[in-house]
Known about the structure:
By secondary structure, this protein is an alpha+beta fold. The chain has 2 helices and 5 strands, in the order ββαββαβ. The longest helix has 5 residues, at 25-29.
Amino acid sequence: MAIKTWQSDAVTIKVDYDKCKGHGNCADSCPAEVYEIDNGKAVPVNIDDCVECCTCVEVCPESAIEHSACP
């Protein structure tokens, strides 16, 4: 499956679907409700609402999320 990339005017989010196990930590923790779990994988369906807090990157136990605003 490899890496899926989503872009908005402000951010780029990449999810490594080989690593993502669909735990849902990103969806549960995101204050802007950017993520949903679809077919067992994280999908940033509301990327335009992202507040660039980096919570998604921090809570992913598989380190499957890469965010342009996060180190």
